[in-house]
Amino acid sequence: MSEQETQTALPRLASSPHISDGESCTRIMLWVVAALTPVTLWSVWNMGMVAVGLLAACILSAVGTEWVWNRVAKHPQTITDGSALLTGLLLALALPPRTPLWIAVAGGIVSIGLAKMLFGGLGWNLFNPALVGRAFIAISWGGVLAEQKVPGGWFRGIDVLAPEGLDALTGATRLAIAGADMAAGGAYGFDAKAQYVPLLFMNLEGSLGEISGALLILGGFVLVARGIIDWRIPVSYIGTVAVLAWAFGVDPVFSVLAGGVLLGAFFMATDYVTSPMTPTGRLLFGCGCGLINIVARLFGPAPEATTWAILFMNGLVPLIDRLTLPRVFGWEGRRG
Amino acid sequence: MDRVASTPAKMVLAVLVTCAVSATALTLTYEMTRGRIAEQQRAAEERALKSVLSSAEEFEALDDGLLEDAQEAAGEVQVFGLWVGRDATGGPQGFAVRCAPRGYGGPMQLVVGLDRDGKVSGVSIITQNETPGLGTKIMTDAWFLEQFVGWDGTSIDTASKEFDSISGATKSAVGVRKGVIVAGHVYADVLAGIEVPEGGGGQ
Amino acid sequence: MSEWIAVFKRGLLIDNPLTVLMIGLCATLAVSTKVEGALFMGLAVIFVMTASSVLISTMRRFVPELVRIPVFIVVIASFVTIVDLTMHAFLPDIYTFLGVWIPLIVVNCLILGRAEAFAYHNPPRLVSADGLGMGLGFAVVIVVLAFIREFVGSGEIVFMGTRLIAMPSWYRGPGVVMLFPGAFLVFGFLVAAMTALNRRLAARKVEPIPGCTLDEGGPS
Asked: What range does the domain containing A126 cover?
């Protein structure tokens, strides 16, 4: 059966130009996991069992779903390629720490089942699986999370659409408060600069992975230095966010550090399968993510929009690839 | 198949006959259902008015000049009706304002009742197009509409500060709140100042 | 009679308007959040579909080719308006729920599409089978879709004010199912199921279906 052949051939994933010889899909995935390890451990150190439970729920459900899917569909088992592990890990890092575990499990199942396996497995998915899982949770159970007063980072956006009603809420993140302040008076009611240090090293307000911006940047640098990810996407993404934040008159450093920009830019937008192949395309992709992210933050109903920015740009990747395809030497003009 | 040819005369005739038959059928249906539809709408409105101002027995629509003033006070939210509610003896009990603030799925038609002192006595949603199961919680979660009762229409901007939204349905919830605020403004700017004749024998 | 049944079955299964032809999806996705609303939407479509198709078929010899579309639209719009007024008068709650989607049946491509492709070229007897089959095919799918969405999304099925079945009270359904993305997801799974079913049916036996040839000029 030809589908099966494709499945087994997939992990070679030769399309990305920067993969050096000797790299396998599994090794790349493990490198990314390794780059996320410091921030993961730091969150476990600070939050204890809460973080462990969330990580376990996401990872086990993601890997388990892939295992079951392959069993039922009689496909060769692919769980050892590490991609499901990475998806589960990213999902956990993108969720608020006190997310009920059953919601996390549902997110893991949706991530792998709906966003990846249904599309044909690794390499065929149009959208980043972890972000699809997160989006599914955000739309489906934003209310449940809010009821439980999860100190919830991006999730605050689901329920805190009304700036005026915000005072009554507990556990709103800096970004949600910032959004409310912006809507109320056009400027932050707190000193954004005083937030740099907590956001970089110890921030318990957001999702699991938001605990330390510095560790995320460290992991990102390792991946860039190692050649695992292309610098173009994170740099253009973060750069666009900073420049636009500055242009709109809000603190650029705070805008980059708060919320999911760092996690998204280094670890989610750079997913091989769902990002463009050409260098120009990657720059364009990163800029698009940054643009949507910051514009939605400042003018949209929710305080954070990283998930939606990256998912939206994921959808444009085939078009970006077409648009930025390098011209063959001697080719005149461009077809449409 | 032998079908009539597309000559101008035949085409005009075919369309004319179809339209005539259609018009007849529709007129008949319209006549048959008209009474019931009007009755349904009146009953729905009556129910809504009663539910927001339970002390009143009868409702009398206020005249169009006041409606125009009310629209001015309401700003961008459309105001569709103003009523004064009277008890059985004709004593004015309060007012009702029908307006259409925007929810998540477009404008929602609400009736807000205010007693004579301008305190909100009730809010009722007549039509809405919110997301079933999420936005519709503004109707199904009883506490939500009850929280507006007692808000002071003369100082609605302060009264509305304390407000519990609905998780997952903030746009809908805030829309209702906006409607109540508008009703408060209408009361403060228009209704508080008018002389309501006792005894309701206007007409 | 077997001819009639073959045409009927085609509308219901092989050429199901929603899961195979995929026409009239807009209203389907919009009103399939409640079984109650979906059921009456389905009934309205069955009525409009059958009545307008049969009428168009009856008068097909007297409608010149060049003005057929205006005539179809007038016929369809009349039946839709009749349904609209009747529902408004007798089922006010459901009318409120369905809102603009009842008048919009007029522009549901399913009905105009069948009028153009089938009713204009076939005798009333067969057309009634097509109208009923297509209408029922639409109704069944929309009700199933609504059942899944209402049950999974809100955890209960409420029909005419009574709760028919409900999940345990701790159940918190994925709210996305109630929204458009969820509608597409559930619909996608339904299409998959229906395709599987049709493949199974097709594997058994293929018989020609009367009136089904395109040589008389189908829709573009």
From this structure: 22-136
